[in-house]
Amino acid sequence: xxxxxxxxxxxxxxxxxxxxxxxxxxxxLRRDAARFVEQGLSAVKLLIDEDCKKAIGFYAISPATVQxxxxxxxxxxxxxxxxxxxxxxxGRLAVDRxxxxxxxxxxxxxxxxxxxxxxxxxxxxxxxxxxxxxxxVKHFYEKYGFTALSTQRNLKLARPVAEVEN
Length: 166
Ligand SMILES: CC(C)(COP(=O)(O)OP(=O)(O)OC[C@H]1O[C@@H](n2cnc3c(N)ncnc32)[C@H](O)[C@@H]1OP(=O)(O)O)[C@@H](O)C(=O)NCCC(=O)NCCS
Known about the structure:
Blueprint: E1 3-7, H1 23-38, E2 43-49, E3 54-66, H2 73-79, E4 85-95, H3 104-123, E5 127-131, H4 135-142, E6 147-148, E7 156-160
The protein binds coenzyme A (COA).
C-alpha cells in the first residue's frame, strides 16, 4: 500500500466501493463531493492508495463561525468580542472500513489541522470545530486536543487553530 494525499478531482480514484460504516459520509464522497468542491462549499482532500487507486479516507473542511453563546465564560473572556468567532469546520472525516484502526484517521485529522493552520495564517480563524456523531467518535477527537464547546453542546468539539501538537 502507498498512501498519498490528493485534493478531490486532481487524481483518478475509484470511490464506488468506499464504505466507512456511515452511509451519509459514503454518499457525500460518491455523490456530493464534486458539487461541494465546484460550488466552493468545502475543500475535500482524499488519502489514496496509489497501488490500487482506491480511497483510503477523506476529509472536508470549510470556513465557519462559532456563536459566542456556545463558548464557556472563560473562552468568552479570552476572546472578549461580541461577534461570532471565525473558525474552520472539519465537516466530514472518514476512513474506509477495511483501513480503520490503522491510524489513517489520525493521519487525515493531522493533515486537516495543518491545512487549516496554513489557511488561517492568511485568512484568520481562531478555532477548529467538529461535530462528533456520537460519544465513540468524540473520544477519537478528544485524543487530538478537541474538547466539548459547552455542556449543552457536548458533541460539538473545538480546539484552537494556533495550538500545534501531534
Ligand atoms: C472515526 C474514524 C475516522 C477513525 O479513523 P481510524 O483510522 O479508524 O482511527 P485511527 O486508527 O487513526 O485511531 C487513532 C486513535 O484513535 C482511537 N480511535 C479510533 N476510532 C475510535 C473510536 N471510534 N472510538 C474511540 N477511539 C477511537 C484509536 O484507538 C487510536 O488510538 P491509539 O493510538 O491509542 O490506539 C473512523 O473510524 C471512521 O471513518 N468512522 C466512520 C466515520 C465517522 O464516524 N467519522 C467521524 C464523523 S463525526
